[in-house]
Amino acid sequence: MVCLSSCIFPHNPIKFPMTEKNVLDSEPHYSNRGYGFSKRMLYVQCQNYNKDFGREYICVSPANIYGKYDNFSLENGHFIPAIIHRFHRDQNKKELIAYGSGSPLRQLVYAGDIAKIICILLFNKELTKDNDIFNICNDEEYSIKEYIYKICDLLTIDNSKIFWDTSKSDGCLRKTVSNNLLKKTIPNYKFTNLHDGLKETVDWFKDNYEHCRK
């Protein structure tokens, strides 16, 4: 099993949502070019090993992952854990800073769901006999602004305090991928909804603030 990333997908796709067949259509977004290409080459390597040496490697390409035990670093954390940490730290300030315009769309998936789905695919060989790559995401997609507002609600912060620093780049505006293949392969899987996943993550961070990665 090899874990890829939604950053492997084209910057300017032919259509949204992108399926597993669109991975190599064109270049990834320039902001993730090196990372995106390196992950793509893992996929190509697995394809070649399967073809030339009879291996049975499977690739999964998850959307943005969040959850407990994440890296909540203000410098190196992904945007959900970094925002949780920064807003928790600064919640008594008159102004809270969020980067960009908040308009880009993102898909998130709870880390616990990723772990469960990987185990299902690994230990049920018949599910993967016809496919060597699966997108892992649920049906939810929101703007960064909506995610940040949800985090504010969980931290009991008035979102009118947020200042949007538009001097910072928005990055890729959209990279929506399809989960149709995954739902066809594991039709009864129930994803953790965003509210429950974010609440569990925020509560865990506050309860483990002294010892978590930050």
Please state roughly what percent of the residues sit in beta strands, choosing from under 5%, 5-15%, 15-25%, 25-35%, 35-45% or over 45%: 5-15%
Helix/strand-derived category reads alpha/beta
Helix-strand pattern:
EHEEHEEEHEEHEHH
| Subunit organisation of the chains | single chain
Shape: globular
Number of discrete domains: 1
In angstroms, what is the radius of gyration? 18 Å
Task: Characterise this structure.
It is a single chain. By secondary structure, the protein is α/β, with parallel strands linked by helices. The chain has one domain (2-207): NAD(P)-binding Rossmann-like Domain (Rossmann fold), CATH 3.40.50. Helices cover 36% and strands 13% of the residues. It has 6 helices and 9 strands. It has helices at residues 33-53, 79-90, 111-122, 144-154, 180-185, 194-207; strands at residues 2-3, 59-62, 64-66, 96-99, 105-106, 108-110, 133-136, 142-143, 162-165. The strands form 4 sheets. A 3-stranded parallel β-sheet has the order 1-2-7, with helices on both faces. A two-stranded parallel ribbon has the order 3-6. Strand 1 (2-3), helix 1 (33-53) and strand 2 (59-62) form a beta-alpha-beta unit.
